[in-house]
Amino acid sequence: MSDLSEEEEEAEEAEANLGEYEGERNPEGERHGRGKAFLPNGDIYDGEYEHGFRNGQGTYRFKNGACYTGKYVQNKKHGQGIFFYPDGSKYEGDWVNDQRHGHGVYTYANGDTYTGEWFNHNRHGQGTYIYKDTGAIYIGGWVNGNQEGEAELIYLNHRFRGKFLNGNPVGPGKYIFDIGCEQHGEYVQSEQVK
């Protein structure tokens, strides 16, 4: 999963004071209304401003190929938006204070997708993860980016229902096969001898 680098975050923060600007201004001379900023580092922002801050709808294009189109509040991504990452992945959904937060869909560079709840930039809450290569589908809980809680893992000809902890099955669960058989059991974490 891609995230903004420190360089990209600093570029966005410095944008209010640097670079060339074409657009509307208020009587105090602040960027206000519709405008386009060309930053010294090669980034470009085209969108709405309010009292010198990106505020409202806009598109921020990073020189590394990343691009965000969506809502801003006080220079931060906030509201609905789409972020295209340089590796080809994409997030479309809710943003709060520059973080993926709320509901969103992340399409990874390898074709996997996650649709569900986000909290502070992590998969957190209920969500569905589809593994493109195998066709497997995980439907269930997430905590800080890890599969955790009650869930169902669906494969092509069988499924597993049970609990997960740190991405692994744990405790009571069952496999249900398409031919009608079920296997009940309990996952126990074993210690490995080093």
From TrEMBL:
Top-level division of the source organism's lineage: Eukaryota
Disordered: annotated span: 1-41
Keywords assigned: Cell projection, Cilium, Cytoplasm, Cytoskeleton, Flagellum, Meiosis, Repeat
Gene Ontology BP terms: axoneme assembly; meiotic cell cycle; spermatid development
The record's listing under InterPro entries reads:
MORN
Q: Which SUPFAM superfamilies match?
A: Histone H3 K4-specific methyltransferase SET7/9 N-terminal domain
Provide an example Pfam family for this protein: MORN
Cellular localisation: Cytoplasm, Cytoskeleton, Flagellum axoneme
Q: Where is the composition biased (Acidic residues)?
A: 1-15
Basic and acidic residues biased stretches:
22-32
GO cellular component term of the entry, any: nucleus
Q: What does this protein do?
A: Functions as part of axonemal radial spoke complexes that play an important part in the motility of sperm and cilia.
Return the protein name: Radial spoke head 1 homolog
Q: Supply the source organism for this entry.
A: Thinocorus orbignyianus
